[in-house]
Design a protein that fits this description.
Elements lengths: L1 E5 L5 H5 L8 E8 L6 E8 L3 H17 L3 E7 L1 E4 L3 E9 L2 H17 L3 E7 L2 E5 L4 H8 L3
Parallel strand pairs: 1-4
Antiparallel strand pairs: 2-6, 3-5, 3-7, 4-6, 7-8
Helix pairs in contact: 2-3, 3-4
């Protein structure tokens, strides 16, 4: 298991080198900053220590729940322009369904519960802090 919280861009190919060796399935997802509604960037903040611990705990929950052979979670913070990779999850399991379900489980939690604070930036300047959307909350409910 590996959890990275960083400001720097990540190299998905390098991070995945050797990941899931011996597994029957590897699923990856990379999220990008969208340019919806005139958005030009996101400013993402977090509390060091607390964030890493929360992500590690949830990654461990995914390992246990879906009997994964490995898991990787990467999440960035700082000023991220539209199109920049913001996060990535990778799951490895003996079977594809477990790998896909675990990736969904991690993503649903990251979208609505991970301790990051995101502020929208537009051409007019800093805007609102982003709250979890209703559909993100509904997606999380399926894992309870």
């Amino acid at each position: 298991m590996r959890v990275l919280v960083q400001s720097e861009a990540f190299d998905a190919t390098a991070l995945l080198d050797g990941f899931g060796a011996g597994a029957g399935a590897v699923v990856t997802f990379t999220g990008l900053v969208r340019g919806d509604g005139g958005l030009t960037a996101l400013d993402i903040e977090h509390y060091p220590g607390m964030t890493e611990r929360a992500l590690r705990d949830h990654a461990q929950a995914a390992l246990d729940r879906f009997q994964l052979t490995d898991v990787l979670v990467v999440h960035r913070y700082g000023h991220l322009p539209v199109g920049a990779p913001i996060m990535m999850v990778a799951t490895a399991a003996r079977h594809r369904r477990a790998a896909f379900d675990a990736a969904d489980f991690l993503m649903d939690w990251l979208k609505s519960r991970a301790p990051f604070w995101k502020r929208e930036i537009t051409a007019a300047g800093p805007g609102d802090w982003v709250a979890a959307a209703d559909h993100d909350e509904a997606a999380l409910d399926r894992w309870r």
